[in-house]
Amino acid sequence: MLKRTLAPSGILRVQSFNVDARAPFSVEELLGVPWPKETGAVASGRVDITCVGPTDWLVVTTDLDVSSWLHHIDAAFQGTEFRATNVSQAFACIELDGSEVGDILAKGCALDIHPSRLPPGRSARTRFAGMPMLLRRVRDLRFEFIVTLSYADYLMRWLEDAELEFKDAV
Question: pTM here?
Fold first, then answer.
């Protein structure tokens, strides 16, 4: 059975104007996780950090009020080429879990989600049902979509409709 959930999340976008910049150790210590450097890498600690490009990261937390995180991260980035911005009101995080998840994802995008290509703890930017998004594999049969908030309702309805095929087969 497929389970889809709109997961309340706080999201910070971290960017640097220097592709060779290294996050300071104080940030890694604050977040409890090594800073991911490779596009598609996801690091999990007190927060999840996804490297979405060579100078672009998303920091996702279950804390809805990220003002404290933003304050501490800004202080840790002081004097570096990194900047953090609260984008929580611009993005939605949707979780998808269940035995049909592979079939549902295959209906919506051409991305190869086989565990050898997209293992747990990895992410990829893709288009799903025509929407640009970040897709992250959390566990074997659990994925997380990060989409702009304007697409969240459409995505939930698309998933609901795609799921009907599997309900009829039972």
Answer: 0.90
- Averaged over 80-100, what is the pLDDT? 93
* Res 6: pLDDT: 80
Rounded to whole angstroms, what are the CA distances from 42 to 18, 30, 76, 79, 122? 20, 17, 20, 25, 5
3-state secondary structure of 4: strand
Task: Determine the distance from the C-alpha atom of residue 55 to the mean position of all C-alpha atoms in its chain, rounded to a whole number.
Answer: 16
Q: In order of start, what are the domains of the chain with their CATH numbers?
A: 10-86 (3.30.70.1520), 91-168 (3.30.1360.120)
* Residues β-bridged to residue 50: 42, 58
DSSP letter string over 115-138?
Answer: TTTS-TTEEEEEEETTEEEEEEEE
In angstroms, how far apart are the furthest CA atoms of the chain?
59
- The percent of the chain in helix, strand and coil, each rounded to the nearest 5, is 25, 35, 35
